[in-house]
Structure formats: C-alpha cells, structure tokens
Description:
The chain has helices at about 5-40, 160-205, and strands spanning about 45-55, 65-70, 95-100, 110, 120-125, 130-135, 145-155. By secondary structure, it is of the alpha+beta class. It has two domains: about 5-35 and about 170-205; about 45-160, no CATH class. A hairpin with a 2-residue loop joins strand 5 and strand 6 (about 130-135). Helix 1 runs antiparallel to helix 2 (about 160-205). The chain starts with a helix and ends in a 25-residue tail after the last helix.
Amino acid sequence: MHTVGKVFMAIGLVILIFGGILLAVGSNNIDEGVESLEEDEWALERVTSGSIEIIDDDGRGELGFSIFIEGTYEDINGDDVWDFCEEFDQSEGQTDFTTTHSEDTTNSFVYACSTDWDWEDERQEGSKILVKIGDSAYEYTNGTATVTCASACWVQYDDKVLDDVLSDIGQAAGGVLQGLGGGMLLCCGGVLLVFGLILGVSIGQGGQKITVIQQGGMPMGGQMMPGGQMV
C-alpha cells in the first residue's frame, strides 16, 4: 500500500476515535440532563416544620415556595374548593400553614384551593400522589424562612428548581450538539479512511514497472552502432 493512502487512513482513524468519544460524551450529557429534569427536588420532604435558607442572588426578592401535601384533585361537593383543602382552616390569620422570614414574622402562605383559579399541580413521590396546597415566601430576600404545616408537607424552592431546570436544559442541549458534532466527525473519519484505503491500493497497483534486460553481458551504458560495433 502506498504511503499517501496510509496517511489518509491514519487521519481518518484519529477523527473516527475523536468523533466516537464526542458522541459518547454527548449521549451521557443528554441522559443526565433528562434524568435530572424528571426528578423532583425538595427543599423539605415530608415534614410538619422546617427551615430553608433564602439566597436572593439578584436582590429583587424570590419567587418563593410551592407547598405540597398528599391528596387528589377532586371537588365532589361542587363548592369550587378542592376537597383536600377543606379539612384545614382557610380563614384570615389561620395557622395551619405558615411561612415566616427571620426578619418578618408575617405569614406569607397563600392557599391554592380554588378550582376556578388554581391550576392542578400534581406530583408523584414514590407511591404517594402530592397536590399543591399553596404558595409562600414570595419576594423573600436573604435570610431564613420557617415553614410549618398542619399535615406532612413537601416544600419546593421554586427559584432553585428554575435554576436547576435551566441548567439541565443547557446540559441536554449541549449533549445534543456534542452528539451531532461526534456524528459528523464519524462520517468524515469514515470517508477519509475509505478514501485512504482506495488511494493506497490504487497507487500501489497502478504504478509503472520498468524492466531492464541485458543481453550478452554488454555494459548498460554502451551504444550499439550499425554492424554490431560498440562505441
């Protein structure tokens, strides 16, 4: 095989290896990003009270918390209030569900119990079905938030979840781009590998062969003149 063909094949092989690595890394990033998106991240899990540290990076106040309890979305009696809310005190000044700030003792919890205004937000946590009972901590700034619940609750820190979702989407998108780049490199490497193989074989078989035949032991540099005389 000709040297030129070997060079092209070597380059193609290197590109193939690099493309395969890039494709594998991209696929892994896509899997990790999608798996992370599917996971619920709780600031507090199955508690009746707990504290959450507020980190307000932009200084404009946080979106706050979404608070969930076990239940199902149904309104059997048709009073426009989700049935899972009816066992709790929903009057002004209620203390069944509270969220306060270390610098403000005002309860910021707001029920999400109206079938007309509060959209269904249902989560699966193991064998349990969780429903959103309300929101709290809106526009909280740096400090410590304290949450209390009349029933075991799960608390989602909405700002953190949003940041994580954007990060996961970015990771998955980056994985897609890496996968596309790896696929293109695999194609290019394959083309170069095949081209090098064909080129090497073609040049090796098609080269011109020269055969020198010496007759009678005569010197190769001699010139035969008419009559058989050498000069």
